[in-house]
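Deviation from plan, reported transparently: iron/sulfur cluster complex.
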Amino acid sequence: MYETFDDTLLSRLNEPVPRYTSYPTAPVWESTTPEVYERHLSQIAKRSNPLSLYVHIPFCKTMCLFCGCSVILNRRPENEETYVNYLCKEIELVSAAIGGRAPICQLHFGGGTPTKLTQDQLERIFFKIVSAFPLDAHAEIAMEIDPRTVVEDEGAKLKLLKKLGFTRVSFGVQDTNAWVQEAIKRRQSLEVTQKTFRLAQSLEFQGINLDLIYGLPFQTVATFRETVHAILEMRPDRIALFSYAKIPWLKPHQKAIKEETLPSTHEKFGMYLAARKLLLGAGYVAIGMDHFALPGDELVEAFKAKTLRRNFQGYTVLPADDLIGLGITSIGSVGDGYFQNVKELSTYYQLLDEGKLATFRGKILSPDDLLRQWVIQRLMCDFAVDKAQFQLKFGTSFDGYFHQERERLKPLIDLGLVSVDPVSVRATALGILFIRNISACFDRYFHKKEGPRQFSKAI
Ligand SMILES: C[S@@+](CC[C@H](N)C(=O)[O-])C[C@H]1O[C@@H](n2cnc3c(N)ncnc32)[C@H](O)[C@@H]1O
Ligand code: SF4
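Because the crystal trials were delayed, the predicted structure below was used instead.
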């Protein structure tokens, strides 16, 4: 069925659309102050629902040309030591604002490259967190890891993570082809990836995830198949299959990737389809827009039970309603608001020196935002929205509230991407590949063209 896609149709659907790790999306957020954030933190202090914590470590030794993350290139260890000291200060301030809160059910370290820090620094941050916040005995504790940073010490850092109680590790692979790696300036031999994977396996982490990206320079369907085959030999519990998000206006280093080396939309889509077929054939279950997991994995169970959630780290099974971000650029979701920390180290340090939290922008959600957030979240996680559930949750009729959206969905219905009946709005088998386009029909800001159109393309 997928092969019937013609190029005109592909280019029509390949418009810039949000990835909906939040709704409303970041470009329409407004400036806010540390005081507003502090008030929000104190409002959730008495809540008994579990909490999720994200810690951002921005440093990397080299810059991968495709990278869309919030990264600081750094080769001076003293800069990292300073950052760790300020991070500990921020943890103290946040924990003072939030008081004795319900335990953390999810602790996620992302970056950048958290494992660029020394063992001592990682331990200090970890103990600072667990002394400031109670940690649930079954908490998911995860770290994003560049394999190249944990092989050189024969696994000593991985062993430390295991000793501290980390349950999940996520390794960046992207592509195993040497030519592609050269073009993206990420040289990582398959041996390094395999060795790291085996080390993590021998330490018996509860879960190991590998990240791949399609749409990179010099990739072809054939080379990307080889990458997927190499990954399948390791058989990780989860595989993230990301579409290369090209956002050079935000990440100028991406301009170093020459346009003519990139695959066409048709080829890029072909890579996704080929990889998807191989992964499904190998027994993986497709979850959400870009994840694959082995049967029995809790992501699969949550997908089946329709309890999957999406947050800034991607898909999750955990029940936390509030997420606290720590470190520069980190984003939190607290009560009815999103809050983001400042992006420059100097401002981060200055605010913390003044005894203030480091928030600079965010969004307090209106009743309309909250209701659309729920619809978009269900579409991104379940590929469907149940109209009766909506009515039960918000006390208003789905069809009555969204008659304009029904019009917006019409072209996608005609293309066979989505079906609408009295019970639900549901993406078809083909439509789940374009779930961002379907979700965007419910995005008020997207259609009013509010905020800069800073999104990567759908394919
Ligand atoms: C923040 S990185 C952290 C992992 C670690 N620094 C590494 O590179 O191995 C997490 C993942 O984001 C993905 N990523 C980064 N930039 C991307 C982009 N422009 N498009 C799609 N995925 C991207 C990569 O797959 C990467 O492994
Ligand atoms: S992909 Fe990972 S290692 Fe490469 S620049 Fe981005 S965060 Fe750093």
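Residues 25-324 form a domain with the pyruvate-formate lyase- activating enzyme fold (CATH 3.80.30.20). We consider this an acceptable substitute for the interim report.
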